Amino acid sequence: MLSQRSFFSSYVELTLDNVKVEGNSGVHALEDDCEIHFGAHTPAFQGDPDGLVLEPMNACVEDPPPPAATWSALAKQIKNTIITASGVPRIWPEHLSGGGPSNPDHAVELHPLTAILATGNTFDFAANIFAGEYQGKVNNRGIVTRVNVSVKTNGESVNISFQGGQIGNFTTLDLLIDRASITNDGAGSFRMNGEVVVDDSTTVRVRIVTVKGSPINNSMSTIKRRAGATESMDGALVLYSLSPESLLDAANKSGGNPVTVDRPIQLILYGTPDS
User: Fold this and answer.
1) Of the residues 89, 121, 199, 230, which has the fewest C-beta atoms closer than 10 A?
2) Order of strands across the sheet with 157-163?
3) Residues near 148 by Cβ (< 8 Å), separated by ≥ 6?
């Protein structure tokens, strides 16, 4: 995959202008991922593949923000228009080929989508960012033990080499969060170091982010102040991504040579699903 180095935002959320929405999926069922996909392209991102997918959460259990009455009405309103889109840049090589208007060939998403400015209206999706009843896929849990990533700079772009076997989206994982590392990104979201507990003898080091406006993000200041070096969180709903921070750190050391990425996985954390 070839990605523009300038795409790696210093914030958890990223805003892109001149995004053309070209298609949409229907609303997915809860057992799938409860989302809706908006396929798009933008000259602000010219990676290979160059598609972009915008994915608001919990569309199967929450209405879209006003003034849209339904998700289908929102999709109709923004299709074939130019919008401004904000969300968490998610980098993950699961749809590199074979896509269509709602799911173009891509490795980059705004996932979750947090807001769009379209047709003179601002749609804020922050209230839809929560774990809810969705549990993710059990067979995605082992991905953390298999991912190896290296990068090599190519001018102002970065070649990303990914090895990970089976790939997937959401799952629930047992986490240990390093309280001392919890840091506000300056825009209201949080970043931190953590470990995924695979079994009694195995943990995997990861980066973790929470998204401004979500319940788990609102808890981070309190979690940081608690006693003890780590916060244990069992069965937390997460979305897999590569870490833009870690990719950029490795790219800055590349000088045109391959560099192994430390802590390549970023988990977008939504909290513990409702029982």
Assistant:
1) 199
2) 2-4, 157-163, 148-154, 259-260
3) 162, 163, 164, 260, 264
* pLDDT attached to residue 4: 67
What pTM was estimated for this model as a whole?
0.95
pLDDT digits (tens, 9 = 90+) for 173-222: 999 999 999 999 999 999 999 999 998 889 999 999 999 999 999 999 99
The Cα–Cα gap between 264 and 4 comes to: 17
Fold entry, domain 2-128: OB fold (Dihydrolipoamide Acetyltransferase, E2P) (2.40.50)
**Per the structure block, which two tokens stand in for 233?**
């969180």
Other beta carbons less than 10 A from residue 154's beta carbon: 13
Distance CA 239, CA 90 (A): 9
Q: Which residues contact 32 (CB under 8 A, 6 or more apart)?
A: none
The SS3 call for residue 74 is helix
Structure token pair of residue 156: 């102002």
Q: How far apart are CA 94 and CA 74, in angstroms?
A: 26
pLDDT over 80 (residue 245): yes
159: Cβ contacts below 8 Å, ≥ 6 apart = 1, 2, 151, 152, 153
Q: What is the DSSP letter of 27?
A: P
Torsional sign, CA 171, 261, 242, 147: negative
